[in-house]
Amino acid sequence: MNKAYYILAAFLIILGVGLLVLPERDRPDEASPRELLGDLRNPSRFISTDKVAEMLIDKDPTLVLVDVRDMYDNLDFSLPGAHSIPLEEILVYDWVDSLAYEKSKVVLFSNSDIKAEQAWLLLKRENHNNIHVMKGGLNCWFETIIQPTAPPETAANDEIDRYEFRKGASIYFTGGSAPIETEAGAEPVVVRRKNKTQVVEGGC
Amino acid sequence: MQFKHPNRSFVAFVITFIVVIVVGLLTLNWPDLKYQLSLEETVEQIMLEEDQIFPEDLVGIIEYEDSAYVIIDVRNPFEYINGHINGALNIPTNSLLDKENIKAFKQYATDSLIVVLYGQDQLEANGPWMILKQIGFDNFQVLMGGYHYFTTGPLDFYDMPEVPAYLVEEPAYDYYGIMEEMGSTSFEDAGSSDQPEVVIPSRKKKGSVVEGGC
Amino acid sequence: MTGPLIPMGAIGQSWDLVIALLIGMAFGYVLESAGFSSSRKLAGVFYGYDFTVLRVFFTAAITAMLGLLYFGYMGWLDLSMIYVNETYVIATIVGGLIMGLGFITGGYCPGTSMCGVAIGKIDAMVFTGGMFVGILIFSEAFSLFEGIYYSNSLGPVKVYDSLGLSSGVFALLLIVVALVAFVFARIIQNKVKKVDY
């Protein structure tokens, strides 16, 4: 038989074996470890409880709340409109595309922010964008929105405004009635919406 | 029937094909850090919650100068200088994957040392732990409560409340109870989303599937 | 859409037909230079005196497979964008039987019959005419065949998935099978009585 055919056959076998021998590469659709680290260093993933409250009150359609605690915690209490996707199942099916669209802000939360950030990192490795973490979680939600602490008399105007907002938000979310004002001519509590676009502040 | 010698163009084609593949392989950028854990394996590891260390245990480790442990502070150098845990090294998160640090981590793994990461709170050390875990360093642990708890809260086992403050993922309040108390019990309806079903045309580029036959 | 360049957006969609034309020309060239416009050469596979068809098409398939797998590995090609035909078990078997019958009887398959027409062979023209008549009959009588046509869909499965192998292992196995088949073809070819064409 012709020598050329032998060489050709040898080449084919080598190429075939080559496929087996080649080391596995990371899937190209995942973010590399260094990219993940870069995302970690960027604090823009955090969103404050105040901002979440504001978006809920405004019925902002771009807000998608996701509760990453387990199902029983979610049934006991959760934020209005939150979807329950426990951390274990956060990658199981492609919920991001079905719940969110381009302009959505997907906000993950748990009791604190650790589980939420773990979920965020996993989703980031799959290169999802627009995923946020509610800083402080539900513990912070209760401390700031539901039962806000009044700032001292000497506090800056900002803080006092924020406290007024939180008081109003508390009433909104608990469905209770406004507290009885003992002073004459007291102003009703107004839910003032300030558009703060800075990085998370005034949290827990 | 005799065999014609394969002509020149055929040989040229075969050689080109092989050269293209070889060049492609050689010019690939082989990333220096690869994931050792798939995403599913990572989720499993996270759910196990085994890589966490209690603050009271760390006290013992420092006191007895247990050389099986290395303590690393992932905060920035300024915070480190202002005060850090005794015997801790400073490797800020920003430089976590630098070459010298990776070398050091590999050395810890060979020496079978356990590395405790801590930040100002547990959250700060969580990210670095997750990244290192996925790259294949499984001897790292996170200090619960972080530096803040370590320097303030009760570290004596007998002084602690039933649910210590460093267990941050436990609900700190009786959520349902508080909501019930503060409002009517119809709080579940209050503020519930009548979020308008906004249909924003999603300009998703659906990669059109290539179809066709023979 | 002709991949991989067009679905990836590297060149515009109007190149679709141009690429199709170029590929068609290349295909016709290769078929003709392999001698596939002769019906006797093509039918040789079934009678055992000429296995060129087997060698050419098997080699083409292996080249394409290696190319796809290597390019996919290197990231030049997104393997998930490749259309995989759905597998209809009964329909494929019936269709294969009909095709095989036609191939042996007529000595052409659809692609090579076009080659024959291009160089003016009358048997190729008749074959092509018969092919059109067959297509017409099928379309008109489709309601009769619809059941068989759509039965038993396994979806777009790949061979190595259903066998549980990895693509690399399967590729190597296929190459070995091909080389063994070529050797056997050679042996058979040497033993069978030569046909003059």
The poorly predicted ranges of chain C are none
Give the CA-CA distance, first to last residue of chain C.
40 Å
Q: Provide mean pLDDT of chain B, rounded.
A: 80
Name the strands of the widest sheet of chain B in spatial order. 1-5-4-2-3
Shape of chain B: elongated
Give the ordered list of helices and strands of chain B.
Answer: HHEHEHEHEHEHH
Largest sheet of chain B: 5 strands, parallel
Percentage of helical residues of chain B? 40-55%
- How is the main sheet of chain C built? none
Helix content of chain C: 55-70%
What's the total count of β strands of chain C? 0
Class from helix and strand fractions of chain C: mainly alpha
- Give the percentage of residues in beta strands of chain C: under 5%
Topology as H/E string of chain C? Answer: HHHHHHHHH
Taking all Cα atoms into account, the compactness measure Rg of chain C is 19 Å
Structural class by secondary-structure content of chain B: alpha/beta
Low-confidence stretches of chain B: 189-214
Protein chains sharing the most extensive interface: A-B, 62 and 61 residues
Oligomer: heterotrimer
Percentage of β-strand residues of chain B: 5-15%
Key words describing this protein structure:
heterotrimer; A: 204 residues; alpha/beta; Oxidized Rhodanese, domain 1; 2 domains; 43% helix; 9% strand; elongated; B: 214 residues; 8 helices; 5 strands; 40% helix; disordered C terminus
How would you briefly describe this protein structure?
By secondary structure, chain B is of the alpha/beta class.
If you had to describe this structure to a student in words, what would you say it looks like?
The complex is a heterotrimer of chains A (204), B (214) and C (197). Chain A is an alpha/beta fold. Chain A has 2 domains: 43-142, Rhodanese-like domain (Oxidized Rhodanese, domain 1, 3-Layer(aba) Sandwich); 143-191. Chain A has helices spanning 3-21, 33-41, 49-57, 71-76, 95-99, 114-125, 137-146, 157-174, and strands at residues 46-47, 63-67, 83-84, 105-109, 131-134. In chain A, strands 1-5-4-2-3 form a 5-stranded parallel beta sheet. In chain A, strand 2 (63-67), helix 4 and strand 3 form a beta-alpha-beta unit. The longest helix of chain A is centred in the N-terminal third of the chain and has 19 residues, at 3-21. The model of chain A is unreliable at 180-186 (pLDDT under 50). Chain B is α/β, with parallel strands linked by helices and 214 residues long. Chain B is built from 8 helices and 5 strands; from the N terminus they run H-H-E-H-E-H-E-H-E-H-E-H-H. Chain B has a 5-stranded parallel beta sheet. The longest helix of chain B is centred in the first third of the chain and has 20 residues, at 8-27. The model of chain B is unreliable at 189-214 (pLDDT under 50). Chain C contains 9 helices and no strands. Chain C is 69% helix and 0% strand. With 197 residues, chain C is mainly α. The longest helix of chain C has 25 residues, at 167-191. Classes of the chains: A alpha/beta (204), B alpha/beta (214), C mainly alpha (197). Chains A and B meet through helix 1, helix 2, helix 6, helix 7 and helix 8 of A and helix 1, helix 2, helix 6 and helix 8 of B.
